[in-house]
Amino acid sequence: MGIRLSVSLCLAFAAFVVFLSASPGPGASAQAAGKSTSTQRKGSGLPIPRFASLRSDEVNVRTGPGTRYPVDWVFKRKAMPVEIVAEYENWRKIRDWQGASGWVHQSLLTGKRSFIIPSKGANLHKTPAASAEVVAKLDPEVMGEIRSCAGDWCRVKVSGVSGWIERTGMWGVYKSEPIN
């Protein structure tokens, strides 16, 4: 009887080890936990944080990641740059240049890069040098399209005028992020 007990214990232990190695670990499989697999998806897998821009002239910003959450406010500026700071399934938590944050559906965002001039105006130069000719003076809250960035300068387009602006004069690009 003692040997049978040992064999039974060994088989039970082996079954337990097989169970542990087959189970997904701390995140626990949604099916094993009796939950829908859709609640387990986290997002796109792209880096967080990252910049994007608004796809529409009207974008509802919600208090949480889903239509069941109330609309907190509505953005009314297409192409406004936003920073994606979190993801949950098809929802993105965004932050604007003034620091306000909330959740929007991914379909309302685009990967096109844009910028906004924050509280202080900035000069748009003909070439990437502070001493270069100024082709336009950009007031606070002016938005434009980012064409490329390298070093301290970004090539941009604002209302049909192209030129160069220092990264420090705009919001919508990280300090040393290359954009091609």
Q: What report would you give on this structure?
A:
The model is unreliable at 1-41 (pLDDT under 50). The protein has 2 domains: 42-112, SH3 Domains (SH3 type barrels), CATH 2.30.30.40; 115-169, SH3 type barrels, CATH 2.30.30.40. It has one helix at residues 2-22, and strands spanning 50-54, 59-62, 71-75, 81-88, 91-95, 101-105, 109-110, 114-116, 122-125, 134-138, 143-150, 153-158, 161-166. The chain is mainly β and 180 residues long. Helix content is 12%, strand content 37%. It has a 5-stranded antiparallel β-sheet, with no helix packed on it. A 4-stranded antiparallel β-sheet has the order 8-11-12-13, with no helix packed on it. The N and C termini lie far apart (75 Å). The protein contains 1 helix and 13 strands.
Helix percentage range: 10-25%
How many β-strand runs? 13
How many domain units?
2
CATH class of the largest domain: Mainly Beta
Strand content: 35-45%
Element pattern in H and E:
HEEEEEEEEEEEEE
Unreliable stretches covering 5 or more consecutive residues: 1-41
Radius of gyration, in angstroms, nearest whole number: 25 Å
**CATH topology description of the largest domain:** SH3 type barrels
Overall geometry: elongated
Q: Summarize the main sheet.
A: 5 strands, antiparallel
Report mean pLDDT, rounded to a whole number: 83
Across the major sheet, the strand order is: 6-5-4-1-7
- CATH level-four homologous superfamily name of the largest domain: SH3 Domains
Q: Architecture of the largest domain, according to CATH?
A: Roll
Number of helices: 1
Instruction: Kindly name the structural category.
Output: mainly beta
How far is the N terminus from the C terminus? 75 Å
